[in-house]
Design goal:
Blueprint: H1 9-12, E1 15-17, E2 23-25, E3 30-36, H2 51-64, E4 68-72, H3 85-102, E5 107-110, H4 114-123, E6 127-130, H5 140-147, E7 151-154, H6 172-189, E8 197-200, H7 209-217, H8 220-223, E9 230-231, H9 237-242, H10 253-265, E10 270-273, H11 276-292
Helix pairs in contact: 2-3, 3-4, 10-11
Length: 293
């Protein structure tokens, strides 16, 4: 991948520097492909549990137009039990190493454990996606600061094991905004440059149906925090609540695309999705319309 050089200030602001030498440009919405190397993820558990199948899927998503591959070795579905570090490392590191030997596509390691994140970065990952927003492991923030890599911080009420046990908010959007204001401030005191921070309001993580809809309805509020915002609504259960059928999670494409497009129209910079090809196609139509205006 040829490294681009930017000169104008407004262009530089739209670049997230990776390592080593890769970068993400935010002049259009980016697509992050989900790669769950787990036996029990809510949507595709077990489908990519071997190194060969996982790497094949990653390369397939790259071919379909993904900008980032997000590799995770622990299910964070509602009610999921934690996975120990050794098992998580065994699942993800060989995949990252093999993929890095075959492709230069930016790779994100999806973990809240500093040791797993460090090993993922050493294996060739470029960034960290932490569902706990650096809260579950006291060593994660120092690691991000030391390695100078981008980090996605997600909002979640509770933990995956209990997050959907009676979540409660007085004003969901305002509370999430305040949460990120505090986390961003803490990052800066820890030596993490704000230009490395991406935020994710955490649709489906400790949220009621009404909360998820409020997040989508007021998504522009998160962009006001001055960091790129990622939407991760792909195949989430709230879609099934709105369209009550017996279809499994991997058949929630229509609702996933609707949430993605709505969020991009309201400022989302990154779309995290299981359905890369369809999402890329939808975003290309949106971008073409925008460019023709």
């Amino acid at each position: 991948m040829q490294k681009q050089t930017f000169h104008r200030a407004e262009e530089i602001k739209k670049v997230i520097q990776l390592t080593p030498g890769r970068q993400l440009t935010l002049t259009r919405p980016l697509v992050m492909g989900v790669l769950n190397v787990t036996p029990d993820s809510f949507s595709d558990g077990g489908r990519y549990a071997t190194v060969d199948s996982a790497v094949e899927q990653a390369l397939r998503m790259e071919q379909f137009g993904a900008d980032i591959i997000d590799i995770g070795g622990e299910s964070t579905r509602p009610g999921a039990k934690p996975v120990d570090e050794a098992k998580e490392l065994k699942r993800v590191i060989p995949v990252i190493e093999r993929l890095r030997n075959l492709s230069d596509i930016p790779v994100s390691i999806d973990t809240y454990k500093a040791r797993v994140a460090e090993a993922g970065l050493d294996a060739g990952a470029d960034m960290v996606n932490d569902i706990s927003a650096l809260r579950f492991d006291i060593n994660m923030a120092p690691l991000i600061a030391q390695r100078r890599v981008p980090v996605v911080m997600m909002h979640m009420q509770g933990s995956p094991r209990d997050m959907q046990v009676d979540p409660s908010y007085e004003d969901c959007v305002t509370e999430i905004v305040v949460f990120f204001q505090r986390r961003i401030a803490l990052c800066e005191t820890q030596g993490i440059d704000k230009s490395k921070i991406i935020i994710d309001p955490g649709i489906g993580f400790g949220k009621r149906l009404s909360d998820n809809l409020q997040i989508l309805s007021h998504f522009e509020e998160f962009s006001k925090l001055g960091a790129p915002v990622m939407v991760a609504a792909s195949r989430k259960s709230f879609i099934g609540m709105l369209h009550d059928t017996d279809k499994p999670a991997d058949e929630r494409l229509g609702g996933s695309l609707s949430a993605a497009i709505l969020s991009v129209l309201k400022g989302a910079a990154i779309v995290r999705t299981h359905d890369v090809s369809e999402t890329v196609e939808a975003l290309k139509v949106l971008q073409a319309v925008r460019n023709s205006a």
